[in-house]
From TrEMBL:
<feature type="transmembrane region" description="Helical">
    <location>
        <begin position="29"/>
        <end position="52"/>
    </location>
</feature>
<dbReference type="Pfam" id="PF23357">
    <property type="entry name" value="DUF7088"/>
</dbReference>
<feature type="domain" description="ABC-type uncharacterised transport system">
    <location>
        <begin position="177"/>
        <end position="428"/>
    </location>
</feature>
<feature type="transmembrane region" description="Helical">
    <location>
        <begin position="461"/>
        <end position="484"/>
    </location>
</feature>
<dbReference type="InterPro" id="IPR019196">
    <property type="entry name" value="ABC_transp_unknown"/>
</dbReference>
<keyword id="KW-0472">Membrane</keyword>
<dbReference type="Pfam" id="PF09822">
    <property type="entry name" value="ABC_transp_aux"/>
</dbReference>
<dbReference type="InterPro" id="IPR029062">
    <property type="entry name" value="Class_I_gatase-like"/>
</dbReference>
<feature type="domain" description="DUF7088">
    <location>
        <begin position="62"/>
        <end position="135"/>
    </location>
</feature>
<dbReference type="InterPro" id="IPR055396">
    <property type="entry name" value="DUF7088"/>
</dbReference>
<keyword id="KW-0812">Transmembrane</keyword>
<protein>
    <submittedName>
        <fullName>GldG family protein</fullName>
    </submittedName>
</protein>
<keyword id="KW-1133">Transmembrane helix</keyword>
Length: 489
């Protein structure tokens, strides 16, 4: 690069020396032009070298179309082995260009651990048979001795392309699915239900994250299954039996993980008593948030906007919204005696409080009473861990039990889970509890195309401007320049 610049300087100096020896005006002008061109070329080469050695990408699109989600980037940076993709698209398929642009982003994020190639199965059918591919618009990911495929069509590449590719990568790099069990028989949220209060959609999200999601009835099974990475108790409406609580406690004492979501409308006294013994104190209140009304919601839908330091909420800055939530407190004395170590990880805003007079809420007359109510910011999510002393010496076991408790179970039901903050807060909690911290981040989301709709005569005005006035303006400007030059000549 240094030699190139010196050469350009030498040429310019030589041209200047020649121009001083009686050259004509036109010759001097030509040499000056040549020198300017060489200088511009030198600058361009210099910028190219700098940009090549400092390769950075900037996405200025509104929906960050050319930016991968934080979770995808985290997964690609955590690859321990080389990952390869074989994309089957015909050479004349315009979708191929879109897929390649997306795969380039994956390659850039992997820092040298990922590469890809394209194959037209119509031209190379043997390659398709090798991976059991029967039609184009398919992508195969190879990781070690495993390969997993997914179809990504032209209708999916923009809206769901990243989500489908990342979910397939997870299936390729994780050989064994971790099992999650949802407790049943107490009016909990149904992971197969399609009603608004149910959890079918969040179950699908977890399955796409490569988890095995199952139901568990502790009234018919004496113990939590040994393969359980996580037990979820989602919004119970009735008491848990003593035998069930013993099974849950035994599971935790072996290093299990528990996620509990509670509601303000329903109580499970036996479960809440058990949690209180561990240091998790539940209040009989409903959180009121006056700020929610400003954002167009109801004051019983508190905005969760304060996230405290914890692996679950690291770099988490997306607000979430709960519905008829209750506050969760840490009882330090019970926590100390039980051996658990809890911390607050999410709170509502400063303009919220935990209203203990439910009757006033029903009348629409709720107001903060600092002597009786819980003054905001109100804690709604806590997380904790406990070191396990009696670890099985014969088998590799977890060294700690984990727990996360939410003061609401509606926030990820089939209606509310679409809120990006709600879904990510829940899934991050699951990933932390299942010891898959490399997945703790912001999930890929569907991208939407913003469409400009012109109503009334606006479309006619736009057509007139684009089809007639703009070209006419260019013609007038060009004609004026030509006339001006001729007159000057």
């Amino acid at each position: 690069m240094k030699k190139t610049i010196q050469s350009i300087k030498g040429i310019i100096s030589d041209l200047r020396e020649k121009s001083s020896h009686g050259l004509t005006r036109s010759s001097k002008y030509g040499m000056s032009t040549a020198a300017a061109i060489l200088l511009v070329i030198g600058i361009v080469v210099f910028i190219e070298v700098i940009s090549y050695n400092n390769n950075k990408q900037f996405d200025l699109t509104k929906d960050k179309r050319f930016t991968l989600s934080p979770q995808t980037e985290k997964i690609m940076k955590s690859l321990e082995d080389n990952l390869e993709a074989v994309a089957f698209y015909s050479t004349d398929d315009p979708t191929r260009i879109e897929v390649e642009e997306l795969l380039k982003l994956y390659k850039y994020a992997s820092e040298g651990m990922f590469d890809y190639s394209f194959v037209d199965m119509d031209l190379k059918p043997a390659a398709a048979l090798e991976y059991n591919i029967h039609e184009n618009e398919s992508v195969v990911f190879k990781y070690g001795d495993r390969h997993v495929s997914v179809r990504v069509t032209k209708d999916e590449i923009y809206d769901e392309g990243e989500k489908k590719l990342t979910n397939t990568i997870l299936k390729a790099i994780y050989t064994k699915k971790k099992a999650i069990y949802f407790l049943t028989q107490h009016g909990e949220r149904d992971i197969d239900g399609t009603e608004s209060r149910d959890y079918k959609k969040i179950r699908e999200v977890l399955e796409n994250q490569n988890y095995s999601v199952n139901k568990l009835d502790l009234l018919t099974k004496a113990e939590v299954p040994e393969d359980a990475s996580l037990l979820v108790i989602a919004g119970p409406k009735t008491n848990l039996f003593e035998e069930e609580l013993k099974s849950i406690n035994n599971y935790l004492e072996k290093g299990g993980s528990l996620l509990v979501t509670l509601d303000a409308e329903y109580y499970s006294p036996s479960l809440e008593k058990y949690l209180a013994g561990l240091g998790v104190k539940t209040e009989k209140d409903i959180i009121i948030d006056t700020e929610s009304r400003v954002h167009g919601g109801d004051y019983t839908i508190p905005r969760v906007e304060i996230y405290l330091a914890h692996p679950i909420t690291k770099d988490f800055d997306i607000p979430s919204f709960f519905f008829l939530a209750r506050s969760i407190e840490i009882d330090k004395d019970a926590e100390k005696s039980s051996g658990w170590d809890f911390s607050y990880i999410a709170k509502t805003g400063k303009n919220s409080w935990g209203e203990t007079n439910i009757g006033e809420i029903n009348k629409g007359k709720a107001s903060l009473d600092k002597d009786k109510d819980i003054v905001g910011p109100v804690p709604v999510v806590i997380a904790g861990a406990k070191e396990i002393e009696n670890v099985d010496e014969e088998e590799e076991a977890k060294k700690e039990a984990k727990m996360v408790v939410f003061g609401d179970s509606d926030f990820v039901n089939n209606s509310f889970f679409i809120n990006e903050g709600n879904m990510n807060l829940f899934v991050n909690s699951v990933n932390w509890l299942c010891d898959v911290e490399e997945l703790i981040s912001i999930l890929p989301k569907d991208k939407k195309v913003d469409t400009l709709i012109l109503a009334g005569k606006k479309d006619e005005v736009f057509l007139l401007l684009s089809s007639f006035l703009v070209p006419l303006l260019l013609i007038i400007t060009g004609t004026a320049v030509i006339i001006f030059r001729r007159r000057k000549a």
